[in-house]
Amino acid sequence: MKNLTDSFVSLGLSHWPSAGSFGFNTDILATNPINLSVVIGVLIFFGKGVLSDLLDNRKQRILNTIQNSEELRERAIEKLEKARARLRKVEMEADQFRVNGYSEIEREKMNLINSTYKTLEQLENYKNETIHFEQQRAINQVRQRVFQQALQGALGTLNSCLNNELHLRTINANIGIFVAMKKITD
Description:
By secondary structure, the chain is mainly α. The chain has one domain. It has 4 helices and no strands. Helix 2 (about 30-95) packs antiparallel against helix 3 (about 100-160). The longest helix has about 70 residues, at about 30-95. Mean pLDDT is about 80; it is low at about 5-20. It comes from Rhabdodendron amazonicum.
């Protein structure tokens, strides 16, 4: 890191000799990898523990949601079994009442089957929507927390690195740049 800082300062001195021992590297191609490596390093250092905890918590919530969905599924299967038992009962009654109206019993049977399948489909759709919603919410929460922590870490690093002397030299260097740019444009 010291070599990186020395190269940054030495590059700055070559462009602005009046800036003293500090300067800015305006070469975008040379500074972007440095900036990216610093930001990635800060994100990894400050965010890995929290991100791991967030992911573990989210995993547990998703597992709970899946378990709840499985319970809903089991209840639906129980309802289906009850519906099948009822269907068998209706079929037995149909044999007894065939003379009195076989077509009415068939309609009742089909309505019962259709309503049961519709109920099962609705429960399955509800389970899938719940899982999808929870996944999206987890992703959004992780994104927000990682961003907040990265921002806090970056601000903390900047605040700890900037002191009054460094801040004044930075301002003087920027003023020098603006004066030089104005002379060029005039």
